[in-house]
Write a structure and sequence with these properties.
45% of the residues lie in helices and 20% in strands. It is of the alpha/beta class.
């Protein structure tokens, strides 16, 4: 018995529902609608409706219901053989995808701005080394890193500007650091308490800048305008090493951050680091960026571990290397409630 059923033409190109196929195969294997319902955790009527819907989709009768218990028709036997194979492949596909996801989650691609990667990065990796996950770290400029995050080349990004116009990307504030002034060791300095003192403190020295291609260069420029400090443009660099080398050589002064100076610590003996007047734009914030609802809390773990490394390791190292800075030169916010 393989009576054809009529169905609307738009159904002929639709694929059969896997749940309905599973219900049909389970009925055939168990020989009973009731036993199949128990195995599937469904009501008997739901199993019956699923099979009737499958028959309508395929436009053929799959069970001979005139026999008790119902048995597959010739079409049903043919479908049973092929559906059994298809369901096995579907289950294997799900297992393979899960295994692949576990493997990918076991290998994390983390992008960081250079100053973080060179200072906090090694300690962060060491702190996470007890987990089963392998961390592969890249460093670079914030715009490149955020672009790679959006393109799924990176899983997480630690950067200083979260300005991504993408609602799928979430951000967590990790820590903040204050801007500091850096002068040649031979230049007479005192701690400026107001912005006007900063200009007089620099004297005839040129301001050595980070380039405007970098986020830090743009942020420092906004800060200087905010506090009313104007200085002619002469030198500009993308990185801290060449900038500090000029300061150490007595060719100018610079505005930088404790983390950048720790990254280029080989120049610290030749410079004097001075805290700057507090202001609304007087700090640089670090953020952890990740894609929403993809990491089952791993982003929170990375943020927590990163803050712990900053509090317990990096901040003390900065204060030891630059004792003239205040204790809050590097500041971690309180942990968000879980």
């Amino acid at each position: 018995m393989s009576t054809m059923l009529s169905a609307s033409p738009n159904r002929r190109n639709r694929l059969p529902d896997l749940q309905a196929l599973n219900a049909f195969v389970t009925v055939c294997d168990s020989g009973s609608m009731g036993v199949a319902a128990q195995r599937l955790g469904m009501s008997q009527s739901a199993v019956s409706q699923a099979i009737k819907g499958l028959e309508l989709e395929l436009e053929m009768v799959l069970l001979d219901r005139e026999v008790r218990p119902a048995v597959p028709t010739s079409a049903g036997r043919a479908l049973h053989a092929r559906a059994t194979e298809l369901l096995a492949q579907a289950n294997a596909m799900v297992d393979q995808v899960r295994a692949s996801t576990r493997h990918e989650h076991g290998q994390i691609h983390l992008g960081c701005v250079d100053s973080f990667a060179a200072t906090v990065g090694p300690r962060l990796i060491r702190a996470m080394s007890g987990s089963a996950r392998q961390i592969l770290m890249w460093s670079g400029l914030t715009p490149t890193l955020t672009e790679q995050l959006q393109g799924r080349e990176l899983d997480f990004v630690i950067c200083t500007d979260p300005g991504i116009n993408d609602t799928r990307i979430v951000q967590q504030l990790l820590f903040s650091e204050s801007w500091v002034a850096v002068f040649p060791r031979a230049h007479p300095v005192r701690n400026p308490t107001i912005a006007s003192e900063l200009s007089s403190l620099a004297g005839d020295l040129s301001l050595i800048r980070y380039s405007q291609r970098s986020v830090i260069g743009q942020q420092i420029e906004r800060y200087l305008r905010h506090i009313g400090v104007q200085a002619p443009h002469q030198f500009a660099f993308d990185a801290t090493d060449p900038l500090l080398s000029l300061v150490a050589s007595g060719l100018g002064w610079a505005v930088s951050t404790p983390l950048c100076l720790l990254q280029s610590r080989q120049y610290l003996d030749a410079v004097t680091v001075v805290p700057l007047p507090p202001a609304r734009l007087g700090k640089r914030d670090f953020f952890l960026l990740s894609r929403e609802n993809e990491w089952a809390g791993l982003d929170g773990d990375i943020a927590r571990i990163a803050r712990d490394v900053i509090r317990l390791d990096t901040a003390p190292a900065i204060l030891k290397a630059m004792p003239g800075l205040p204790d809050n030169a590097v500041f971690c916010p309180d942990e968000s409630p879980s």
